[in-house]
UniProtKB/TrEMBL annotation:
Protein name (record): Type I secretion C-terminal target domain-containing protein
Superkingdom, taxonomy of origin: Bacteria
Family matches, as InterPro entries: Serralysin-like_metalloprot_C, T1SS_VCA0849
């Protein structure tokens, strides 16, 4: 299922495994359980988020042990970074994270994208907020939930 092209848009997933594709709107993805994947494509080559807006997701689940968990979810930025050469050694030049307190007193994790890494055309720009999730790019790389 795909987000909207402009404005804001809410997408409600099923309890099964869903594919959510970001589009130009500020999408709110409600995962609702299952192994869901959020896909970020390069929609606009001249935009700091690749034309994806600023999205948020409810129900993102981080793998907290080595056991497979039927609820863990994935973020796929392969296409978003397709004009770069991200590797495990430099991926953190492109994707970074900050943790922020939210209005209800919990913690959100905000993922930022810098489309040209150490290049100077782009700076880290908010892409996706994982609502009520405390994690980091390091952890998502370790659990292989960030696909690049
Ligand atoms: Ca979007
Ligand atoms: Ca789902």
């Amino acid at each position: 299922m795909s987000g909207g092209s402009s404005g804001s848009y809410t997408l409600n997933g099923t309890s099964g495994n869903d594919l959510f594709v970001s589009r130009g709107s500020n999408d709110e993805f409600n995962l609702n359980g299952g192994n869901d994947t959020l896909i970020y494509n390069l929609l606009n080559k001249n935009d700091a988020t690749g034309g994806n807006g600023k999205d948020s997701v409810n129900g993102f689940t981080v793998m907290k042990s080595t056991n497979w968990n039927t609820d863990i979810d994935f973020i796929d930025v392969k296409s978003l970074l397709s004009d770069q050469v991200p590797t495990s050694a430099n991926i953190k030049n492109f994707i970074s994270s900050v943790q922020v307190k939210n209005a209800s007193g919990g913690t959100d994790t905000v993922l930022l994208v810098d489309r040209d890494g150490t290049g100077t055309n782009y700076n880290p720009t908010e892409l996706l907020t994982l609502k009520n999730v405390t994690t980091s790019v390091d952890e998502l790389l370790q659990t292989k939930q960030l696909l690049f």
